[in-house]
Amino acid sequence: MPLALLALAVSAFGIGTTEFVMMGLLPNVADDLGTSVPTAGYLVSAYAIGVVLGAPLLTGLGSRVPRKKMLLLLMALFTVGNLASALAPDFGWLLAGRVLAGLPHGAFFGVGAVVAARLVAEGRQARAVATMFLGLTVANIVGVPAATLLGQHLGWRATFLVVAVIGLTAVAALARLVPTIPVEAHQDVRRELRALGNRQVLLGLLTAVFGFAGVFAVYSYLSAMTTKAMGFGESSVTVVLALFGIGMTLGALAAGPLTDRALRPTLYGSLGALAVILVAFPFTVQVHWAALVMVMLLGGVGFMTTTPLQMLVMNKAKDAPTLASASNHSAFNLANAGGAWLGGVAIAAGWGWTSPAFVGAVLAVIGLAIAAAAGFLDRGPGRASRVVAANHARPAPSPARPAFQDGTATPGGPAATSTPGPSGHSSPSGV
Fold it and tell me: Which residue of 97, 148, 153, 298 has the smallest Cβ count within 10 Å?
């Protein structure tokens, strides 16, 4: 795999840490800023709102910006947002800082997924995207538990300062390892908007909203379930969150090759398994070892849906995939907010601390039904890499021409050819 994927994974690690750590820091933030925990919960929603708004807005504004430069600008904005959060003098400013930190999230993953898919050979694109997502999953194993402990002992501001440092590290890695990729002749916002209106793209985004909401209906309340339903002490919360993160990582590792082999079966299978696990979850919480196994399985099958959904919308957007790719992360964050809200409604109704699992199962089934309907309407090929590869054909390598405009070779491999684009622009083969 190209080293550029490592830079994307480091960036994803920082993004994943700041996205999920707030759930563990809500009591600390509430105490420090003199507000209630439910009110502090708006900080989770604020980040999600930033993602939903920022993904299409920043992607559209940057449609003519070279992709490496766009990645650097987005990660710089992410760093500034976390620094602003660390220095926020009151709750209102912290709320604004969380929105600012969330703005580049979806656009970064959207652009990053397109770059990752085009840095590797045909048949390995889903694995490349999954490798970038590994940074997000490792954040749940290492970043979120460590940042939570740091916030509990040194204050929540220290957590966001450390995340800002991770952001600076990611900027340096992107600058060093990601090759310069010229603007493509067909890269413009009108073309991206037309691709976003594709029926299959819209159904893929709708699948993400409902299917992934099933995961967040439970994950949002996993800390409370650990103590109130499973019977563990508060010190066990970080362990349970880490197990969920391990499951996510295993799911991401499995999703890449499975999606490259068979996109839709991987999507259907993961959504179906998610629904089954969510139904079974409430019946296992009284048995400690079974509850921990179910937490890992929930993370695994839940995150296994992300890679096929990402590749689906990119494939169906054809040669204008960036906005659709970024919008997929808006869909994931709508799922985050919606799943958390519906899970909270179930708890508030007195249905019990494990009731969000049943709500999540219903959402997962709806997502599976939408995905199945989309598959019925789509009579085209289902392999993840075909469309991406078909719309960016790779000419035979030529040692006389470098891969990129700055003269560097393709990361992790020999130099590729540079061929003139439709408008006379030089565009690298495989990008």
Answer: 153
CA distance 147 to 125: 32
User: Looking up tokens 């620094």, which residue turns up?
Assistant: 83
pLDDT confidence tier of residue 30, bands split at 50, 70 and 90:
confident
Rounded CA separation 198/194 (Å): 7
User: Residue 146's closest CA among 124, 134, 162, 132?
Assistant: 162
Cα 259 to Cα 17, 59, 386: the distances in Å are 26, 25, 11
Among candidate residues 169, 172, 170, 160, the one with its CA nearest the CA of residue 83: 160
State the Cα torsion 319-325-326-328 to the nearest 10°: 150
Contact 252, 244 (CB under 8 A): no
Q: Which two tokens stand for residue 277?
A: 């696990």
d(CA 359, CA 59): 33
Mean pLDDT, residues 368-390:
67
CB-CB contact of 119 with 5 (8 Å): yes
- Residue 42, pLDDT > 60, answer yes
Q: In sequence order, what are the residues at sequence separation of 6 or more whose Cβ sits closer than 8 angstroms to the Cβ of residue 154? A: none
Burial class (CB in 10 A: 0-12, 13-18, 19+), 299: buried
What's at 213, amino acid-wise?
A
Q: 204: closest CA among 303, 130, 313?
A: 313
User: pTM for the full model?
Assistant: 0.77
Count of all residues that appear for the chain in the document? 431
Beta-strand relationship, 418-420 and 426-428: antiparallel
Which residue has tokens 């469309």? Answer: 387
- Rounded to 5 degrees, what angle do the CA atoms 245, 247, 250 make? 110
Which helix (H) or strand (E) segment holds residue 419: the answer is strand 418-420
CB 366 within 8 A of CB 385: no
In this structure, the number of other CB atoms found within 10 A of the CB of residue 235 comes to: 8
Rounded to 10 deg, the angle between the 144-154 and 4-33 helix axes is: 30
DSSP string computed for 252-291: HHHHHHHHHH-HHHHHHHHHHHHHHHHHHGGGTTTSHHHH
Q: How far is CA 131 from the centre of its chain?
A: 12
CA distances to 120, 172, 217, 253, 368 from 207, in Å: 27, 35, 15, 21, 7
